[in-house]
Request: fold
Amino acid sequence: MNSTLRRGIYGWIAFAVVMVILPHVVGTGVTRSFVFAMYLAIFAVSWDIMSGRTGYISFGHPFLIGIGGYTTALLTYHLHWPLFLSIPTAVVITMIGGTLFFFPALRIRGTYFALVTLAFMELIYGLVQVIAPNVTGGTRGLSGLETIVTGAIPNYYLALVVLLVLGFTMWLVIRTHIGTALSAVGMDEDAVRASGINVTRLKLFAFMLSAFAAGLGGALYVHYLGSIAPRALFDVGFLFQILVACLLGGAGTISGPIAGAFFLTFLLEWLRPYFPGPERFLIYGAVALVLYVYQPNGLHELVRNGLKRLNQLKLSRNTS
Amino acid sequence: MLEAKDLSKSFGGLKALQQVTLRAEFGHSVGIIGPNGAGKTTLFNLLTGEIKADSGHVSLDGMSIDTEPIHERVKLGLARTYQVPRPFAEISVRENIRVSMMEDNLKYMLRVAWDDTGEQEIAESVGFTAQQLDQLPSELAMGDLRKLELARTLATNPKVLLLDEVFAGLTYGEIEHISNLLIERRKTHGTTYLIVSHDLKALQPLVDDVLVIHGGNVIKKGTFDEVVSDPQVQNAYLGTG
Reply:
């Protein structure tokens, strides 16, 4: 048990080292793609800590990300708050606002939870445009937002630090008793209650971690883009990118969804020169589908099996 | 002491339980028998709080637990096994037991499980081998699933244990093993048992009193011998022929 934890930590260190060196090796264009990949990875981690193990499949994560994004956008754009205040405020508002909506929803299970959370997203999409469009910018959103740092490389390192800290923390969390208990909730929630565990509190805790990551990621993301618009955030396409990254990577593992986010982003980038039009998404869908059918537990499982086979090969060579 | 007073529950027009009263002192063991559909499992569900009674009260240790949710009742020492075992299917036997052993606070739960001697002890006490600890419930036979069910319940450290058909599907050897474990635990921990079982032979050495439920009513209370020789009970079980 200790050895798997140790191996995982080595994996994180290796990942961090490669990522730190990377922008010095690749060009600016690829660096920018990596920034997008890392934001997608942050959102995927946020989704995974809540939905990956518990089976409460959230279709409403853009809702959370959007609360974070809009809060800091409005505070800085209209009230000229400094970023170091508006971003933490955005995180807190996401956690509070998210709880108001998600907490009641966490009483319904399965497909209904997914549908209700999807409704949250569509609801806020409508509200942002209808209520006070002169404040929110309506359908067109707001642009010319303050940026935290400028240039591809500084933005790269900013996203990297956030991804490493959030990702590693969440990865550690699911390796504690909490992770085991969250898995158990996904398998039989009532039996977890009958084991003497307050399931409501457990779900709320997982949700809080998720909302924290979503709020922080969302706030940083809009200040990276410098703009915000309802259809950029509260969008089924955006939602599916997060979901597919998690499922492809291996839900419930944290490291899997991060890998999934990178894989997805670069699959789309690599396809771009050959298929500049929307047919790119058809291929991307097909690749995702084939991979998912081949290994429902995702890239994470593929890598794990690969390593296992490699070990066996080494063992058999040593013995012969 | 576990006490239930006048528990009633209807499902639509079906009166599943009517004014059932029972008392189990600490260290005392009560068998609950009755034909299929008599209301035995409903009684357990009312005691643990999984379903709400229409009327009546449950108290543990003289304290009313009517308003306590399921997990609080478990923490107070009232635990149960399920008639159909409900293991966590995709985690190992060890982790299944771990979930029950966890303290219910986030600070405790945010620890990494370095040490599994506690899980191992409980697993071995119900008759698991060390190799089985890493197996998934899907790899276990019915008998082992019942053992896991019992192990998970014991891991909550219960004062009162509700056992729902723990012997079904077990071999004679396994029944004897579990029986001895329960008797031993009663001596060392003073655990109270409420045991639902169709296996009267397995029940006999374990219980001080037997409660017979038929059609939602308690039709007989008494020692094992009194109850099984009662003509009314025999009718309920075998029919009037």
User: Anything to note?
Assistant: DSSP finds 15 helices and two strands in chain A. Chain A touches chain B at residues 1-2, 5, 172-173, 175-178, 180-181, 183-184, 187-188, 190-199, 201-202, 205 (CB under 8 Å). Residues 173 and 234 of chain A are 29 Å apart (CA to CA). Chain A has one domain: 2-235.
